[in-house]
Automatic annotation (TrEMBL):
InterPro entries: Amino_oxidase, FAD/NAD-bd_sf. Interacts with COX5B; this interaction may contribute to localize PYROXD2 to the inner face of the inner mitochondrial membrane. Residues 34-206 form the Amine oxidase domain. It is found in: Mitochondrion matrix. One of its GO terms (molecular function) is oxidoreductase activity. It comes from Eurypyga helias. This is Pyridine nucleotide-disulfide oxidoreductase domain-containing protein 2. Its main location: mitochondrion. One of its GO terms (cellular component) is mitochondrial matrix. Keywords: FAD, Flavoprotein.
Length: 356
């Protein structure tokens, strides 16, 4: 249990709770849930520019990272077709993957197919079911994809000024504006309480909020004097109590709760808001193809990691269909902006390609 680990090393409850957020981020779990300690480890392993456990902002926004990968790929001869939805993996008579079929009917032939879509989309929607073992299909159907995350993107006309560290007179970003700010995280009990409400299918009344202001480090993201604020919040269940839909009223009610919480820490925040974009779990699934809105393509619990991700006997990026590989977050080692699953899958695919 994460709580036991933190109690062993730390005394300060706010510090323990702040660390605990990385043990539950993106997970329908509380700091007291068995296995939550691994999720914390997952988020602090690795390094950035030689600094162990460090995270960073991408200059130009997260899309700039995708563009950098795309530029590198095209420099090596790759052809990229954006806005071309795939509707099926094309199989030959021998059962091997031979390419993909696009929604407009175009067939793209290839000796290998790598999918960074979720295991659910890859194997339950894009692959002919009669070509897959039934026990494998059942396993993919049973993957826990519950997500507690609602993401809120906000444009503001000034920096938030926190009671604990008021803004400077010149309005310039201070050190705390340039890192991750955790709100409603004074104790692990608060996090557990927020989680408990979601297990009863009610959005948290005092949600866990991770607030970042990327424009404080990258001014090009917003007009002069204005800023963009990213709110990663939980817990919000995918399905609300009584089957209530996540309609505009429910979305705005939850966002108002989040903004009221921020207002208590930074008076004037609500008045600074120009516009907000609310993405609940169903929105994340519909827009980005994340099953259940899960940012990791499936829970990072111990029964869904390592040799069991996405299914026992298929944790090595190969699938039951020869020539079809899984290279997204649903494969080992799971989610995070690190590219490990893609790199590992590429190595396996290259090994097989040389044999062909």
């Amino acid at each position: 249990l994460l709580g036991q680990i933190l109690d062993h090393w730390f005394e300060s409850e706010p510090l323990k709770a702040t660390l605990a957020t990385d043990a539950v981020i993106g997970a329908m779990a509380s700091p007291h849930t068995p296995g939550s300690g691994y999720v914390l480890l997952h988020h602090v392993m690795g390094e950035l520019e030689g600094r162990r456990g460090a995270w960073g902002y991408v200059a130009g926004g997260m899309g700039a990272l995708s563009q950098a990968i795309a530029c590198s790929a095209t420099a090596w001869g790759a052809h990229i077709f954006a806005e071309k939805a795939v509707c099926q993996v094309l199989l030959g008579r021998d059962g091997r993957a031979q390419g993909v079929v696009l929604q407009d009917g175009t067939e793209v032939r290839s000796k290998l197919v790598l999918s960074n879509a979720s295991p659910q989309i890859t194997f339950l929607e894009l692959t002919p079911q009669d070509q897959l073992p039934q026990d494998f299909v059942q396993r993919i159907r049973q993957v826990d994809t519950r997500s507690p995350v609602t993401k809120i993107n906000v444009a503001v006309d000034r920096l938030p000024s926190f009671l604990a560290a008021p803004n400077a007179r010149d309005g310039q970003p201070l050190p705390h504006h340039q890192c991750s700010i955790h709100l409603n995280c004074e104790s692990t009990h608060l996090l557990h309480q927020a989680f408990t409400e979601a297990t009863h299918r009610h959005p948290s009344s005092r949600p866990m909020i991770e607030l970042c202001i990327p424009s404080a480090l990258d001014p090009g993201l917003a007009p002069r004097g204005c800023h963009v604020v990213s709110l990663f919040t939980q817990y919000t269940p995918s399905v609300l109590a009584g089957g209530q839909p996540w309609d505009e009223q429910a979305r705005n009610a939850y966002a108002d709760t989040v903004f009221d919480c921020i207002e208590a820490y930074a008076p004037g925040f609500k008045a600074s808001v120009i516009v907000r974009d609310i993405l609940t779990p169903p929105d994340l699934e519909r827009i980005f193809g994340l099953p259940g809105g899960n940012i990791f393509h499936g829970g990072m619990s111990l029964d869904q990691l390592y040799f069991a991700r996405p299914a026992p006997s298929y944790s090595g990026y190969r699938s039951p269909v020869p020539g079809l590989y899984l290279c997204g977050s649903g494969a080992h080692p799971g989610g995070g902006v690190m590219g490990a699953a893609g790199r590992n899958a590429a190595r396996v695919a290259l090994e097989d390609f040389r044999r062909l």
